[in-house]
Design goal:
mainly alpha, 6 helices, 71% helix, elongated, transport
Length: 206
């Protein structure tokens, strides 16, 4: 074979290889556009519940500092109860939705981080269910009961100061535990987004 023929052959192989070569793209940028995401209903419920819980925690901490007998305190307490039960119903809806809707897998991470993420998320769900139930039971052991947006709900107890203090104390303890868990949850999401750069946060953004 002549040198000229070999030159044309090399050029043909180079052209073919160039055509089959993958384009040089930014993998992270591509993942941010078309990466796995939660279902739309789960995203909406996540942010509605998050805003509701933050508002309830702020309102609850504010109410504790108000003096007894202040008229506005009773109004805020009833608002707190109605909002709390509304968020509780949204949490139950989200639990049901998680069982049937698509959830994207976690990105690659060390086993301890995966275990910490699942543990924190599990404890968040336990707190979101247990806290309103404790508050509702605490209200059941007094003479006022619970009104859900003006509708008086059934009382599951009687006027008992000891049991009322027990359930309200549990309600307050879970609230502080939820604050710690929320801080850990947010810190973990920011770590993955800004340090690990695995675009984890984008899965839950609207």
């Amino acid at each position: 074979m002549s040198a000229k023929t070999e030159t044309h052959g090399d050029r043909g192989m180079t052209t073919a290889n160039s055509a089959n070569a993958k384009p040089d793209i930014d993998v992270d940028a591509h993942a941010s556009v078309g990466g796995p995401r939660y279902a739309g209903l789960l995203i909406a419920l996540h942010w509605l519940i998050a805003l509701g819980i933050v508002g309830l925690l702020a309102l609850g901490l504010y109410m504790v500092g108000l003096p007894k007998g202040l008229p506005v305190k009773a109004t805020l307490i009833n608002l707190h109860k109605s909002l709390g039960l509304t968020v509780f119903l949204l949490v139950l809806l989200r639990i049901a939705a998680r069982l049937v809707l698509h959830r994207p897998p976690l990105p690659p991470m060390p086993p301890w981080q995966r275990a910490a993420a699942r543990t924190t998320q599990g404890l968040l769900y336990v707190g979101m269910v247990a806290m309103p139930l404790a508050g509702y039971l605490g209200s059941s052991f007094n003479t006022y009961g619970t009104r859900f947006w003006g509708i008086l709900l059934p009382k599951w107890g009687w006027d008992d100061a000891h049991l009322r203090a027990l359930f309200f104390g549990l309600h307050h303890a879970i609230a502080y535990a939820l604050i710690v868990l929320i801080v850990l949850h947010v810190a973990g999401a920011f770590k993955h987004q800004w340090i690990d750069r695995d675009n984890l946060l984008a899965r839950m953004l609207p």
